[in-house]
Amino acid sequence: MIRKSIEIRMFAYILILFCFQATYAIRVSPGVITVRGIPVVIDTSLGIPLTLYNDENMDLVYTVRVMKPSQVKKHWRDGFEEIPDTNWIYLADGNEFVVPANGMVSSMVRIRIPDSDAYYNQMWAVYLLVTAESGSMFNTAVAPLFMLETKTLTEPNVPPAGIPGSAPSAVTLSKNNPQADITLYNTTDSALTLSLSSYIPSQDKSSAEIEPTAGWQFDDEFMKGIEIEHKSIKIKPGDNKKVSISATNFPSKKAQALLKIEGAPVIRFIRIFYHP
Length: 276
What we know:
This protein is mainly beta. The protein contains two helices and 23 strands. The chain folds into two domains: 4-150, Immunoglobulins (Immunoglobulin-like), CATH 2.60.40.10; 165-274, Sandwich (Immunoglobulin-like), CATH 2.60.40.
């Protein structure tokens, strides 16, 4: 795999890997992509095309289907829930492509999220299942992972989607403003007991479950200095609770850490930025 990162509009951070499949000499890029700052309501390009490569000496027909993670595999990356509706994701040029021998075809990936404050502060995962065939002789598939983070909204007018919902999904701390509040929402019919901790992923990029935002780095010193008002909370059904976090260590450069929330069906992360 080849890894590189680029920055696009909407403060997006994209991690690109190339997926290889042995049955054909086909390649698909990106293999993994994280996009931050996706707006609600606006029909939006994710800023990078899905590119289908054909290294065979015959034309291949590629079909692309948008899939919820649970339709593809049992476990996917922590911190990302399934997108509520796969119909929100689509390719600008349709879902079937004839890729010429030793050629390539690209199509922009787009998203259209319905108008609701519930869809701000979200971290969703979705797979694009790509199958390739030539007549009835061959069939193979790869599934790039798209990790999508919608824009942050501090005071939504309805509880955010997710279990638990959170608002905002990212906070920025500084020496002059070292404290921030985060509200967690329980929209289920059962009480939620959650544990909260400061966290940064493994430094081994091959196993990291969440990537830093473009232009920022996870910082161990900053993470260890994060103080959390309540490290364990219980939220009644339909209720919400506010949690304060504060920074006590101030690095000399921009830094990032995560608030890790456990106890729900999916681990959730809230990004914590430090700006000197």
